[in-house]
Predict the 3D structure of the following.
Amino acid sequence: MPSNDRAPLGTVRLRHACADDAGPLTRLFLASRAAAMPYLPRVHSDEATLGWMTHVVLPDTEVWVAELGAERGEAELVGFVSLDGEELEHLYLSPDAQRRGIGTRLLAKAKERSPEELALHAFRRNAGARAFYERHGFAAVAFSDGSRNEEGEPDVRYRWTAKG
């Protein structure tokens, strides 16, 4: 259990995402990026981001969500992870749910689903994400100048293998 001064969140449940999650996942994605990476340019409208979540992320990747309050019938999505085979496409948490072990649980689910190896990209300036992945055994294997992503932001390619 992480040690911090935040109150416990309650029971966190992981489950497969469904089509009805598109709206809440889009809001979580946008809020998380705005809080963690305010320097990123907004390259798509909220509506376009919802369309991408609805028509690309949810149908084309394996998406797991973390939710709170399901035992009370008031489930709130607080994080998600998206996988495309051995590629960890997305791992985002709502700003209020960070540093409470939820990201670690979502990452553990990703490792369970792809037990031999995982790879991902993180923006170089996203020090929090980079430290998180490095703490969980990911190693930087390549650096880019940002020409490969729509934000034009330099990034880092990370890889994790079960063999270490």
Observations:
- The chain is about 30% helix and 30% strand.
